[in-house]
Amino acid sequence: MSGMKKALWVVRDKITTAKAIDDLIEDAATRGIFDLVVQVRGRGDAYYRSDLEPRAEGLTDPDLDPLDRLIRYGGNVGLRIHAWTNVYFVWSHPQKRMPLDATHIVHRHPEWLLRPDGVHALDPAGGKDWEGVYTDPANEDARRFTIDVFEDIARRYRIESLHYDYVRYPQVTYAKGPDDHRNVTALVRDSARRLRAARPGIPISAAVFPDPPVARDRVLQRWPEWAAAGLVDLLCPMAYREDTKEVARVLAAARAAAPKTQMWGGLMAYAGERERLASQVAAARDAGCEGAILFAYDPAQRDLLDVFAGAA
C-alpha cells in the first residue's frame, strides 16, 4: 500500500439509500481508502437533517440521514467523512425546473441570486460558461446564511472537515469587475473564523481550479492567498485532464503557489482508463501532493477503485 493518502469525492446521488451508503463504506474500507469527501449540500439542499435548508429531492426515505449514517457506520471501520458543500451554486435542473420546496433559497430569497446583465437569474439548465443558479457573492445576507449552513453542519455532525466546492464566480463576466474576488475571499475568511470558533481545530478544505492564473482571472478564485493567510488547511486542485503531462504541469503549478498547505491532487476517473489513472496518481505524487482524490466514486467502476487504491 502506498504511503500517499487516497480520498474519494462522493456525489450526492450515491448516498440516497441505506444500501448505497453501506456499499460505499465497504468499497472504500476494503480498499484502504479512508477519506470520503461526501456531497451533503448539493443544490442549496440537505443530505442530512437541517432546519435551514430543505431536504434534498433525491431522498425518498424519510428516516434516512445520509451524513449521520456515513459517520456512524463509516467510523466503525475507520473512515473519515468530510462534508462537501457547494458554496454559491444552489440549483440546477436539466428541464429548467425550479425546486419543488417553497422554502428553498431560490424561492425564499430571489434577491440573493446572481443576476448578470439584468436577467432574473442564471438559467437552471446551465450554459456554456455557467452550471446553473448561483447566489451572488457580493450579497452579504446570502454570505451570512451560507456560513450559517456550514456552521450548523460543523456543530451537529462529527465531520472530519468542511469542504468547499464552487467557491467562485461562474465566470469573471458575471462579476461587476475583477476586484469582486474580494467577495469570494470575504466568505472564505468569515467562514474560517466562524467554523473555527464553533469547532476549534476543524480542518477546512477547498476544491479549486488548479492553474492559479486561470483561477484568479477566469473565476475570481484567489486560493493561493487563502492558503497564505491560513484560511484553508487543505487544497484539492481539480486537475481533470486526459493528458498526464498536463496533469503534472498544473499540479506542479498549484504546489508552487501554495508550498506550505496540504494538497491532494484531484484526478478524474475516466471509464476503463486504468493505466491512465495509475500514471496520474504518480504525477500527483511527483508534483509534491501529499494525497490524491478521485472524482468520483462509482460502484460501476470498481476496477478503477482498485487501481487508485494500489497506485504508488
Tell me what you see in this structure.
The chain is α/β, with parallel strands linked by helices and 312 residues long. It has a single domain (5-90, 138-310), classed as Glycosidases (TIM Barrel). It has helices at 18-29, 66-76, 105-108, 140-156, 181-198, 212-218, 223-228, 244-257, 274-286, 302-310, and strands at residues 5-10, 35-41, 80-86, 89-91, 133-134, 161-165, 204-208, 234-237, 262-268, 291-295. It is globular, with a radius of gyration of 19 Å. The chain starts with a strand and ends with a helix.
What is the topological layout?
Blueprint: E1 5-10, H1 18-29, E2 35-41, H2 66-76, E3 80-86, E4 89-91, H3 105-108, E5 133-134, H4 140-156, E6 161-165, H5 181-198, E7 204-208, H6 212-218, H7 223-228, E8 234-237, H8 244-257, E9 262-268, H9 274-286, E10 291-295, H10 302-310
Parallel strand pairs: 1-2, 1-10, 2-3, 3-6, 6-7, 7-8, 8-9, 9-10
Antiparallel strand pairs: 4-5
Helix pairs in contact: 1-2, 4-5, 8-9, 9-10
What is the gist of this entry?
The chain has 312 residues and is of the alpha/beta class. It contains 10 helices and 10 strands.
Low-confidence stretches: none
Oligomeric composition of the shown chains: single chain
CATH class, anyone?
Alpha Beta
Beta-strand residue percentage: 15-25%
End-to-end gap = 8 Å
Q: What is the string of helix and strand elements?
A: EHEHEEHEHEHEHHEHEHEH
Count the E strands: 10
Using only C-alpha atoms, the radius of gyration works out to 19 Å
CATH architecture: Alpha-Beta Barrel
Number of domain units: 1
Shape: globular
CATH topology-level fold name: TIM Barrel
Q: Please give the largest β-sheet.
A: 8 strands, parallel, barrel
- Strand order, sheet with most strands: 1-2-3-6-7-8-9-10
SS-derived structural category: alpha/beta
- Helical coverage, percent range: 25-40%
Determine the mean pLDDT. Answer: 96
CATH superfamily: Glycosidases
- Number of contiguous helices: 10
